[in-house]
Design goal:
CATH superfamily: Crotonobetainyl-coa:carnitine coa-transferase, domain 1
CATH topology: Rossmann fold
Structural class: alpha/beta
Number of domains: 1
Number of helices: 5
Largest sheet: 5 strands, parallel
Number of strands: 5
Distance between the termini: 25 Å
Shape: globular
Length: 142
């Protein structure tokens, strides 16, 4: 992102893939926030949807414009600590992994807010965090 926006000076850390969270964080980047996209070591699977944008997926390029990208293995202790340090400095945290994924990784969102009381968190799921469909995958602009 070049130029200034209303959100300049804010740091967004987003553990994201596919559509919903990348779209949300893209809008924050467009408004001037610094957005750091956290991807799994092999990268966001949306990178491989097509190769129309100079070898990259046009879909991926569109949804991730203006962001920085860092690959982390969230099952690795050192990478988890790096993510914790990033979140400690962040203003906003976004994630769209399956409900409960951060708890299972030992990174509960409630603890992130305890460690960083000013942190705004956004957990996106296709069908909510509980209920009969909560563990179903959804990839769309829901």
């Amino acid at each position: 992102m070049t130029g200034k926006g209303d959100l300049e000076g804010l740091l967004v850390v987003s553990v994201e893939q596919a559509v919903a969270a990348p779209y949300a964080s893209m809008k924050l980047a467009e408004a001037g926030a610094r957005v750091i996209k956290i991807e799994r070591p092999e990268g966001d699977f949306a990178r491989l949807y097509d190769a129309d944008a100079k070898g990259f997926s046009s879909y991926f390029v569109w949804l991730n414009k203006g962001k920085e990208s860092v690959c982390l293995n969230l099952k690795d202790a050192a990478d988890k600590e790096l993510l914790r340090a990033m979140i400690a400095e962040a203003d906003i945290f976004i994630q769209n992994l399956m409900p409960g994924a951060f708890d299972r990784l030992g990174l509960p969102v409630a603890a992130m807010r305890d460690d960083n009381p000013r942190l705004i968190t956004c957990s996106i799921s296709g069908y909510g965090s509980d209920g009969p469909w909560s563990q179903m995958k959804a990839y769309d602009l829901l």
